[in-house]
Amino acid sequence: MVQKQKPPSAASEPKRRGRPRAYEPDVALGKALDLFRRQGFAATSLDDLSEATGMNRPSLYGAFGDKRELYIKSYRRYREEARAAMVEIFRQEMPVRRRLERIYAAALNIYLSGENGPRGCFTVVTAGSEAVSDPEIRGMVLEGLNELDKAFANCFRRARENGELPASADPVALAQIASATVHTIAIRSRARVARKELEAIVKGAIDVMVGPHG
Question: What's the pLDDT tens digit per position in 8-30?
């Protein structure tokens, strides 16, 4: 006679391995981005990143790779967010002066943000330094700079076609001035120059590019 086997008790069941993630990747990446923006690549340690994200080193590596890979992912995230803040302003129809005012206002909102003080621009303040020795980061920096130049050039080209600028206006040269203005307010914002002073710089640059406001 075959005896019925008793069902295994809970105590005899094999233990499940592993555990659900105790972090959200997007949130952790945002924390890493904030830290890299404040401290740069070299000054940010794995211990700093672990503390900021709430993840231990193995978890960090498993989710994002090594510190360099996490830095690059953070830079990509920054560029995506900055692009999202600007793209509609570049696309919408509006007078060139108003478009430039809105672009620079959006840039200042980004550069002056941060719980521990203004963080400036990731590209100008930190990625530009790493671009010296890292070809991949250098390529990303150049791509971002060229993208901004082209967006501004299209802006000035449309303004010339609409009669807001003289036929002799050079959209490419004006775009380089416009981009240079972005870079200078990024650096000055990191140095905690007051927004009012930065807005005065912006106004002067716009007057140079499109003429004094009538």
Answer: 444 444 444 433 345 688 899 99
Phi-psi region of 192 (alpha: psi -120 to 50; beta: other; left: phi over 0): left
Cβ(187)–Cβ(178) under 8 Å? no
Task: Give the Cα separation of 169 and 55 in Å (integer).
Answer: 53
Side chain identity, residue 60: L
87-141 pLDDT, tens digit each: 999 999 999 999 999 999 999 999 998 777 788 899 988 999 999 999 999 999 9
CB 209 within 8 A of CB 174: yes
- The CA distance from 34 to 78, in Å, is 9
pTM of the model: 0.83
The CA distance from 124 to 109, in Å, is 16
Give the model confidence (pLDDT) of 147-161 as tens digits: 999 999 999 999 999
Cβ–Cβ contacts within 10 Å for residue 141, how many? 22
The C-alpha atoms of residue 123 and residue 137 are separated, in whole angstroms, by: 10
